[in-house]
Amino acid sequence: MANIKKNFNFRNGVQVDDDNLLVTATGLVGIGTTVPTEALDVRGNVKIIGDATITNATVGILTLTEVVPTQIIGAGVSIKSGIVTAQGAGIVTFYGDARFLQGMPTSQWQDVDVGLGYTSIFNTGGNVGIATTDPRTSMQVGNNVDAGQRGVGISSAGNINASGIISATTFNGALTGNVTGNVTGNVTGNLTGVAASTTQLQNARNIGGVSFDGTSDINLPGVNIAGNQNTSGTASNLSGTPSINITDLDVNGHANLDNVSVAGVTTFAGIIEGIAGQNKIPFLYSSMTDLPSAGSYHGAVAHVHATGSLYYAHAGNWWELVNKESDGRVGTGTEVYNVASINSSGIITAATELNTPLIGVGTDAPANAIQVRKTGNAEIQVTSDTGIAALTIGREAGTSNTNNAEFRFGRVPGATYSSDQSLDIINYGIGNFNYHLSAANAGNIDGDFHWHKGINNSRLMTLTGIGGSLGIGITTPSSSLHVIGQATISGNVVLGGDLDVTGNAALNVIGQVTGHLTGNVNATTGVSTFKRLDLDTTSYYEFGELSASAVGIGTTMGTYQLAVNDDADKKFFITDSGNVGIRTDDNFGSELYVSGDVVLREALGVGTTQPNSVVDFSSAGQGLVGVKANRMFMVPPKVTNAQRGNLTGLVSGAMIYNTNLNKLQVYNGSAWETITSS
Q1: The domain containing residue 19 runs over which residues?
Q2: How many CB atoms lie within 10 A of CB 410?
Q3: Is residue 57 within 8 Å of 46, Cβ to Cβ?
Q4: pTM for the model
Q5: Residues near 579 by Cβ (< 8 Å), separated by ≥ 6?
Q6: Where among 548, 573, 591 does a domain terminate?
Q7: What is the pLDDT of residues 59-97, one digit of tens each?
Q8: I want to staple 22 with a disulfide (CB 3.0 to 4.6 A). Which of 410, 420, 421, 654 is the partner?
Q9: Rounded to 5 degrees, what are φ and ψ at 22?
Q10: Is residue 630 helix, strand or coil?
Q11: From residue 463, how far is each of 376, 450, 494 by CA, in Å?
């Protein structure tokens, strides 16, 4: 039949040899089966050299070496099972609603337009967690506050439970529970409960005739400060032995007081007459010889007019109290004293200024302007009962605070973070605020800077004296910054070198990551997993671009450019030469090797991109060069008679080449029919 053009019309089907090739009466073609169920039913491997055009295809595992985007987009690809993988420098885009993609987050989000001109996204069910994988409220940031952990929880009812500081410009609505810390600003509405402290009352009230708004202590005249207290009225019918404490008694007129015992200090404007004529308080005598016995009047104080001095009685003698003269001297005549050399075991008080170049306390040879020296503890105390206690040093005599510094306990006016219990160190000048450690021995390795809260609590932060290493939560930092525990940075972080993480690192990014990564993301061991890659869509065909030298998904790359799954029965790989293997570890030198079934649901075209039938081999092998040149023929399965008898699953149309007959045979549903030349 060579070189003879013939047409064959088989009305009841064609069977070649036994079961190599079968064409049923209904037009079904079976290769490797006698019971075809589709237009083309191939039982075995299919190798196509050239283009294949398929309108719809159902494929278990499909490996493509090249996909033309303009021809596959819109046609639709339906993949019910298996793995779809794409790689290389080309452009890859997946379309659809992603309902059946594996490895996607299980949380469901939905965009809704409620008619406001924009769409909102909401979670269709469950709780939302940020920086946590176990949210216990509708919205939870960080850990569970109800379990004593740090975080913020927001319920669907609008309740907020936070372990840290809540800052807001305005609070509206009712506030129940305890409030700790300072409240700055006005409170509109009623407050029930106890306020630990307040800065100022909105409406001042009078207490004992004195206005009180909460900004200062209450001072009542005649009670705790000098002044008159209006006590009009009569106190009568006092019985028993009442105790009346009078701090200031002003009696106008005559008062008869019997058996009066005064425990405190009593002052008198007039003369108090004693038994003796000269026994007056205060004592006043013309000369030293007029002084009474110091032993009889121990502790008395007397002024002697002749000497112009004041004396006091002690230990049987009258002792002169030194006076400051107008010229600055202390004492009179030869009794001029150097105040720095006065030894006193009691209290020295002075109503006037004390001018001396050196003052020594506990030493008669002070080395500085003021020196306190004791064998035991030595302390200089500056206190205030109700106001500010401060120590000022500087280069100005006034109070303008421009060229001095202050060590201060108490509120600093205008300082936001200063309070009545604050200790403030203030430099009013424009120079530096310097800390010097081991200033006399700069090379000394001893001594560090430590921060504590409480006397015996653990150190919070340490700055080493040598090298400048700062430790937070550790007293022996091994690097410039050494932090034990969690660190939160709310601003930008700039690293000038490498970032080394010891142990596992969990990186949770809330929001977008912008900028560029220069270099490789490299893991020397293990598998790096990305839940989702959103690729740039600004390049060719609006596909994103993923560039990598080799990619391993569920396995290591090995010698492959792309490898998916470590199990050989499920593996998909692409070699550096472009060969593709499916469900195998070896492609046996073929461009495409599939260890399994290949099912095309609609059309198959070999040698064409536009098949004219469901199976179009009309252009198969056309234009090929090399070892496949001029091989435009098809070889059906070759079986012997014995092998044909062992075939199973036969359907009408199954076709084989019988090697015993050297002829094509087609299975008609019940028997094999041989195709002959006559």
Answers
A1: 12-58+599-678
A2: 17
A3: no
A4: 0.32
A5: 587, 589, 590, 591, 592, 593
A6: 591
A7: 666 666 665 555 554 445 555 555 666 655 555 565 556
A8: 654
A9: -140, 130
A10: coil
A11: 31, 6, 22
